[in-house]
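Quiz preparation item.
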């Protein structure tokens, strides 16, 4: 099953077993998750063993399973949405990435999407080191995280507002993430700023989120629903399209090239 078909097929499970929060996330973040799944298709062979790290609510895990991957979903608190994972036949392991070893070896790929920003910076190198050890040599890491230097983060700071989302511990620039990746035994294969969130983090009906493919769709939704968020996204999109570093998301694909040798990280 290809990426989009797999992700769409998971929708029925989410609506049956998920709560309002997860159902909302399925639609709002549909395009972001689809981008991740397409990167997996590009870099990970069918049937590969794949780790989904920080996997709750297991939407990506289920889609990957339906794409034919051997998926191990790892999360610090899997219980609230465990039924979603079980309904897809996904193996789930409870693990605190900041403190626990993964106890996995020779995995082909690791998906580490929208997790980095939830971790304490002091533990991030150790977490990336653990991921490295869980992968086989030349295994791939697919990482996504918000861009602290995005246009909307900058505007919030300019207005005297906290730019970091309230549930995030720390957000990063592209340069910072690349330094962390390269310092923990990985070589970067591909890195870019994604415009997906700039198109889709809007006010829309559920099905509209599944249909946003480009700027024309954003304009259409804004005309039909001229909320403050939609108007700002529509006005800002040409700028973020022109200057990638102002986009909301950082995407990195890396491959393991060596076992890391970390130095102690100072806390002050």
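Solution:
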């Amino acid at each position: 099953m290809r990426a989009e078909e797999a992700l769409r097929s998971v929708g029925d499970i989410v609506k049956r077993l998920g709560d309002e929060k997860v159902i909302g996330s399925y639609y709002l973040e549909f395009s972001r998750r689809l981008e991740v799944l397409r990167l997996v298709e590009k870099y990970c062979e069918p049937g590969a063993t794949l780790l989904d790290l920080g996997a709750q609510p297991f939407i990506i895990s289920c889609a990957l399973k339906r794409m034919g991957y051997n998926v191990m979903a790892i999360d610090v608190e899997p219980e609230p949405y465990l039924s979603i994972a079980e309904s897809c036949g996904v193996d789930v392991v409870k693990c605190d990435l900041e403190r626990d070893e993964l106890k996995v070896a020779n995995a082909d790929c690791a998906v580490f999407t929208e997790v980095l920003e939830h971790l304490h910076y002091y533990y991030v190198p150790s977490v990336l080191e653990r991921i490295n050890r869980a992968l086989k040599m030349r295994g791939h890491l697919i990482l996504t995280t918000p861009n602290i230097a995005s246009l909307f983060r900058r505007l919030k700071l300019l207005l005297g507002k906290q730019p970091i989302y309230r549930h995030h511990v720390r957000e990063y620039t592209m340069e910072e993430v690349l330094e962390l990746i390269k310092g923990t035994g990985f070589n970067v294969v591909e890195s870019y700023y994604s415009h997906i969130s700039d198109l889709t983090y809007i006010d829309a009906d559920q099905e509209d989120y599944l249909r946003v493919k480009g700027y024309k769709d954003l304009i259409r939704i804004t005309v039909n629903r001229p909320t403050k968020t939609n108007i700002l996204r529509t006005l800002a999109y040409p700028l973020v399209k022109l200057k990638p570093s102002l986009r909301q998301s950082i995407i990195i694909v890396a491959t393991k090239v060596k076992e890391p040798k970390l130095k102690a990280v100072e806390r002050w």
